[in-house]
Amino acid sequence: MRKDAKKVLLAGALVAVIISLLAPFLASSNPDGLDKSVITLVGGGDEEKAEEIVSTNDPIGYKAPFPDYSIEGFGKAGEVMAILIGTIVMLIIGIAAGHFLKKS
Questions:
Q1: pTM as predicted
Q2: What single string gives the DSSP state of each residue in 26-65?
Q3: Rounded CA gap, 51 and 11, in Å?
Q4: Taking Cα atoms as reference points, which of 65, 68, 69, 63 lies closest to residue 84?
Q5: Would the pLDDT of 1 be above 80?
Q6: Positive or negative CA dihedral for 34, 37, 43, 45?
Q7: What percent of the chain has pLDDT over 90?
Q8: In 3D, which of 74, 72, 70 has the Cα closest to residue 29?
Q9: How far apart are CA 37 and CA 59, in angstroms?
Q10: Could you write out the three-class secondary structure of 1-32?
C-alpha cells in the first residue's frame, strides 16, 4: 500500500472512531422512523406494549449482540463501547476485504 493511501485510510479510520465516540451524545433519544411505525401500528402508540408484542412474536429468535446500540448496565459508556466495537469490527472487515480483493 502506498504511503498516501495509508494516510487516507488512517485519517478515515480516525474520523470513524471520533464519530462513534460522539454519536451517543449527539443522537436523538426519539425513536427513528421504523421504531415509531412499530410503536404506532403494533402497540397502538404504547411503546411497552409494542416491545412486548414484537419480542413474543419473533419468528427467527435472533438476538442482536448490542440491542439498541448499547451494552446493558453501562449507561452512556455502554453505548459508546457498543458503537466503538461495531466501528472497529467494520473497519477490520473492510480493510481485510480490500486486502483480499487486491490480491485476487
A1: 0.73
A2: HS-SS--HHHHHHHHHTSTT-HHHHHHHHHHT-SS----S
A3: 40
A4: 69
A5: no
A6: positive
A7: 42
A8: 70
A9: 19
A10: CCHHHHHHHHHHHHHHHHHHHHHHHHCCCCCC
What does DSSP assign to residue 68?
Answer: G
- If we measure between CA atoms, which residue out of 37, 36, 39, 61 comes closest to residue 48? 39
> What type of residue is 90?
M
- For the chain, the domains span 3-103
The torsion angle over the Cα atoms of residues 26, 28, 21 and 72, rounded to 10 degrees, is: 150
Looking at this protein, which amino acid is placed at residue 39?
I
| Tens digits of residue pLDDT in 18-66 | 999 999 998 877 767 787 888 888 888 888 888 888 777 777 777 888 8
Give the pLDDT score at 31: 66
